[in-house]
Design goal:
The protein has 229 residues and is α/β, with parallel strands linked by helices. 29% of the residues lie in helices and 25% in strands. The protein has five helices and seven strands; from the N terminus they run H-H-H-H-E-H-E-E-E-E-E-E. Strands 2-3-4-6-5 form a five-stranded mixed β-barrel.
C-alpha cells in the first residue's frame, strides 16, 4: 500500500465520518453529544489525506507496505454498503438492566401525560418507590422485547459514550398491552405507575412495571438510544 492508496483510504474514512455526522448515522454508534467530535475527526482525516497526497508528490515512492494493511479497507466499505442497525432486543435480553445504582430523581413537570425517558421512569419507579409518579400519567417510547416466560418489556438502550458500553433499561408492561407484538418493534405507551417489580435474571437489577392504558406503534426514532448526559 503506497502513500497514494493511504491517502485514498484516509479520504474514505474521513468522508464516512462526515457523512455519518451530517446525516445522523453516527447516532447508531455514539451518543448525540459527540457529533462535533465525529465531524472534527472527519475533517482531520480529509486534511490528512490531502497532506499525504502532497507529500507523496514531493518524495520518491518508498517500498510498499505489507499486504495485510489492505484489510483496513474492509470496515470502510462495510460502513458505506451496509451500516449495521442499532442494538435491539437480542442484545437487550442478554445484558443486565442499567437500573442498578441510585440516581437523583427530579420533580415531574406539571400536566398529564408527562413524556419521560425509559430511564427517567425506571429511576422514579425503583429509587423513588413511585412516589413522584402517584396520580400521574406518563408516556414512554421504546422497543419491544420478550423475556423467557413471554413477559413483554419496553426497552431503551442507555449509553455512557458509545454503543460498545450500551446497557438496556427494561420496563415490564401490564394492563392494556396489545395482544400481538413483534420484538424490536417501536411502541409508544401511556400509563400509570405499577408497584410490581421483577429481578433481571442477568444481573439481578430491578425491573419496574408500567400499567399500560394505551399503546400505539411508532417509527424508530432518529436517536434510538438514551443517555445520562
Amino acid at each position: 500500500m503506497n502513500r497514494t492508496v493511504q491517502a485514498i483510504l484516509l479520504l474514505l474514512v474521513g468522508g464516512v465520518l462526515l457523512h455519518a455526522g451530517a446525516t445522523g448515522l453516527y447516532l447508531r454508534y455514539v451518543k448525540a453529544g459527540l457529533r462535533p467530535l465525529v465531524l472534527a475527526a472527519g475533517v482531520v482525516l480529509v486534511v490528512a489525506a490531502v497532506a499525504t497526497v502532497r507529500y507523496a508528490r514531493r518524495r520518491p515512492a518508498g517500498p510498499p507496505g505489507p499486504r495485510i494493511s489492505w484489510l483496513l479497507v474492509l470496515p470502510v466499505f462495510a460502513l458505506i454498503l451496509a451500516a449495521p442497525p442499532a442494538l435491539g432486543s437480542y442484545s437487550a435480553m442478554r445484558t443486565g438492566t442499567a437500573v442498578t445504582a441510585p440516581r437523583i430523581v427530579a420533580p415531574l413537570p406539571a400536566g398529564n401525560p408527562v413524556p419521560l425517558t425509559v430511564i427517567g421512569y425506571a429511576d422514579r419507579a425503583v429509587y423513588d418507590h413511585g412516589r413522584s409518579l402517584t396520580g400521574r400519567t406518563v408516556t414512554l417510547t421504546g422497543f419491544v422485547a420478550f423475556g423467557d416466560d413471554g413477559t413483554p418489556y419496553l426497552i431503551r438502550m442507555l449509553l455512557n459514550c458509545c454503543a460498545a458500553d450500551a446497557q438496556p433499561v427494561k420496563v415490564g408492561l401490564t394492563g392494556e398491552v396489545p395482544p400481538v407484538l413483534q420484538p424490536d418493534s417501536w411502541l409508544e405507551v401511556t400509563g400509570t405507575f405499577s408497584p410490581a417489580q421483577a429481578k433481571d435474571p442477568v444481573n439481578g437489577g430491578t425491573i419496574p412495571y408500567l400499567d399500560v392504558a394505551r399503546a400505539q406503534p411508532v417509527p424508530a426514532p432518529d436517536d434510538p438510544y438514551e443517555s445520562l448526559g
